[in-house]
# Entry
Amino acid sequence: MITDAEAIAAALRFAGERLDMQGEVDIETRRERVAAADVVTVRVRERQTGPDAWMEIDWAPVSYFVDANCGAVIGVATERSTPMLRRSD
# Structure
């Protein structure tokens, strides 16, 4: 089983590679069983501010589902989507 810190690192790596995340983030974690898999749900909300920002952007949270056994991101969901998980067998 991976730790919450390892799950957070995997989720942020995934988000950074695919979404070009910038700015500050708020993070929540929760361990649960989804589709017969033990997962750590990492909920990330990005907030972009700074001297060069002409307005503050507060993005909707995105949940990353990290396999608790191997540490791979196996799914992503926004507040408006249904979680879709892929098997990591």
Summary: The CA atoms of residues 46 and 64 lie 13 Å apart.
